[in-house]
Amino acid sequence: MNTKWNRREFLQRSTAATLAALAAGAPMSGLLSSCKGKPGSNGSADTVILLWMAGGMAHTETFDPKKYTPFERDMEGNRVLSTFKSMPTVLDGIHFSEGLQGIGSVMDKGTLIRSYVAADMGHILHSRHQYHWHTCYEPPQTVAAPHLGSWIAKELGPKNPVIPAFVDIGQRFTVGEAEELKAFHTAGFLGNEFGPFFIPDPSQGLDSVRPPVGMDAKRFERRNQLYNELINNSPVGEFGSDYQRESLKRSMEQAYALLNSPESKAFDLSTEPKESYNIYNTGRFGLGCLLARRLTEQGARFISVTTEYEPFMGWDTHENGHTRLADMKKQIDGPVSQLIKDLDEKGLLDRTMIVLASEFSRDMMVEGRPDAKVLEQVAQPDILSDAKFYGMHRHFTDGCSMLMFGGGIKRGFVYGKTADERPCKTIENPVKIDGIHQTIYHALGITPDTQYEIEKRPFYTTPDGKGKPVMELLT
């Protein structure tokens, strides 16, 4: 929290926030979800954890390795399908790329999807594909489409009344394409109370649930009262609907309730036993996994943990792909595998669905997909004269890997297949984003025809309500 705003800056930011709430729209009064029966009553999951590999995780370098070719100066790039050796997993005949042995050791507890196909939206932009993955709608839209987590928060509500129903860990808006990322980190027309509770740095999670330095509890309570007055006298208060006003107030009340609850201690990672903490402590993502586990224990509903998208950083491998992925694997392998082990040992994995995914994959030679190539964005030579060109640097949408665990997902199961030779595209059981979303909703007991009337038309969880769960993934 910025404690140095002057009066003018505070008013500017408050006005901008309330105007944004107005722009997002809200369901018409009296509108009802079209769920049949009580949402969640027949589901196999109560909680969802999304582990987001932001930036484009290459499938052939992670969970779907192909023939390994070591680097040689002046080698042909087209020879290179994988830059890492493949290593056996706990599943017979299934290999992961070197550096992911930890996750490979827990694959008997989940499902590997090797046939996710990202949307063909022309010129590839990370923010557009991330928007599509998280909302199931291709941008631009005439209304603000809700995030997957916001739909879940709206339909099921908080599992624990004092824990925010939608927690986002690790996402900052001070790097990369900030405004574009903000566009899908929102509840959209569902209202602010169903939007994400942001924890940009998990090591400072406790700061998110307590007053800023120098402010005692009584002063914070007075600010809460002033906040309600501000809403009543803001553009939302004057021009907004009752729904919008109440949504803003409830979002503040939820934060205030958390501040005063015993559950707020879950945000303090310093209380984690050292041995456990050290396993997760591979960076912000690893500690985000630890925080996700602690919040799941306290009754969280939907948690997103991201490696964060920053251009030319992390999984966004436009050069030095091999060395960059070696580092990314170190950041995720231990924490992800430990998260799964911990939840399983605590008896929570059966009702907690974990999804590990990325917006698209990568290839050394193909930009887009073989039958729909797009403008090349990476200077990748045909002959590799330098080790910095050794890696998967182009964006590839026709074959991506995804992992799913718990919450009714099959254990020790592999779904889909990609070709073993370039282009390493999906050749069996293609899966698209509406299928993934509806599989998650189905596990939670949220029906495919869930909708709200916006702009005098129904707005479904997936476009036109046509998404179908991939039942083969479920027990």
From TrEMBL:
The keyword Signal applies. InterPro entries: Alkaline_phosphatase_core_sf, DUF1501, TAT_signal, TAT_signal_bac_arc. Residues 1-23 form the signal peptide. It holds the Pfam family DUF1501. Keywords: Signal. PANTHER family: BLL7424 PROTEIN (PTHR43737), DUF1501 DOMAIN-CONTAINING PROTEIN (PTHR43737:SF1). This is DUF1501 domain-containing protein. It comes from Dyadobacter sandarakinus. The lineage of its organism: Bacteria, Pseudomonadati, Bacteroidota, Cytophagia, Cytophagales.
